[in-house]
Structures are given as structure tokens and as C-alpha cells.
Request: fold
Amino acid sequence: MLAPFGRRLAEVRGNVASGGYRIFTVVDRDGPGPRAGQFYMLAAGERWTVRDERPFLGRAFSVADARAGDGGMVLDFLVADVGPGTERLAGLEAGEGLWLTGPLGRPFSAPGELRGGAAGAILVGGGIGVAPLAIWRRALVAAGVPARVLLGFRDREHSGGLELFASEREPPQGGDATWQADSGQSAKLKLCPEVRLASEDGHASHRGYVTDLLAVLLEGDDAATAAVYACGPPAMLEAVREMCARRRVACELAMEAPMACGFGACMGCAVPLADGGYMRLCVDGPVVNASRVESALVATSGH
Reply:
């Protein structure tokens, strides 16, 4: 799928707190709908520069949800405030404009395309990397593909996005995860039944790494009948890649690298390949077959 050349102005519809992150929603009136795993280059319509003239380039963000709505395609993005660009995006307010280019890049492949006979999927997300797995889970469910979702977080401060995996987008009573509203009042969030959580500080379900949960599944029949899809920090991606390689499980990784253009011109997102040479994540990824990369432990290659 080719995105229209040039950026276009979308309208921000909302911005809500989600754990330590923010989920902001925009309406794209003119662009095509994305596929799960694709990304957009984003820049605030106003106040996109600071004293030292940064940030002046767009920021690459995986789309977390997409649906047809009044006036165009409604898109959700998950953002953590970690620098001048993300700070501005995290502070977007309803009615503001957002410049976007996309959808860009290579999306996820169906389980059967990764491995013959694969009938299900295991989704492994870490931190802010849960975003593209949310839209992928919905696509799999719509196609009748069974999917188990494993999500891991460092601690409560570095967590969020669980609303994207909720049975309902509004916070209902019940469930086992906490949703923090902007008003400061807590409510219970009912997660979809196939979602399992891990946290290093023990604040959510399993105390430990999300790869602990994956190891349990890969010891069972799922290893022979499912494909694994992962997005998260580099160390997590590398652990997933090694686990799947040892067990000969088909695996795709949604990776990240610095991007200035999103169209393959700047060469800023090159990562080494297992058989030599490099790939540009913006056009050859960001979703890549785990067997193609030399290692996922590449600086700035994760979420």
C-alpha cells in the first residue's frame, strides 16, 4: 500500500491519560486506512519548534487503532513523553491540527503466510510497543484467527495502552487491571480474556518479564501451531527472536530506528541483516521476519 506523497493535516479529536502514557485520537479525512504494523510520520500543526529549533522533523509512530468514522479515518496513537517531540504530541488537545504522512511501511503477515499450518497467533508486547499489537489483535479476531496476547511493563509509570485491549473502550466495572481517568478517579478495566500481563515491579499479574509468559506457551502445543509477533524494547525483541529461533517458531518483529523521512531516502533506519548487508526499516519494515535480522539488539531499534 502506497501512502499519498506529501503530508496532510488531520484534526485531533481527543487525548486521554493511559497509565504513564497518552492515547490521542485524530481524524484523517483524506488518507487511506492503514494495515496493522504500519506507521505514520507525525508533527504537531502548531508549536513544533523550541528554542534550539528542535523538533523540526516528524516522529514515526505505529498506529494503535483505525476505524471509519464521521469525516474520515479515525486513528489512535499511543505516546510516551520522552523528549521535545513526544512531549508536544503528548500535549495535543482536541481541535488542534496534526500533520501526518502515511500509512507507511510493511505490515504484519498472516500466520499462514509465515508458516504453513500456523493457525493461531501469539502477540508479545513490551512498554510503548504494545500499540501495533492492539490493531493487529483486532484484525486477527475479525478474520477468525485465535490470538493470545502477552503484555509486559517495567513498572506502573512506564505502562499504559491497556484500554486498546479492553472488551469495551469505556472503562467498565470488573476485570483485573486499573485504568486511570483524567479526573484522577480509578476504575476497573475489563481486558479481553486472551490477554495476560507481566510487570517487573509486580504491579500487574505476573512479576517478571513478558518473555516468561512466552516461554510457557512455547513449551506447549502453541509452538507448533502459532506464529509469534512482537514489538517492544530491543532486549525484549532479541529474547523473543532467540526463543523462537531455538524452537523453530515463525516470528515477526516490529522494530524501530531513527527516521527522518519514512520513504527510504535518508538511510537513518538501516539495521544489519543476518546474511550481510542492511535493510531500511521504513520501507523494508518496520515489521520484519525475525530470521532476516542478525540481531534485534540494535541501538534505538525497539519501542
Q: What stands out?
A: The radius of gyration is 18 Å. Residues 170-187 have pLDDT under 50 and may be disordered. Residues 217 and 267 are 37 Å apart (CA to CA).
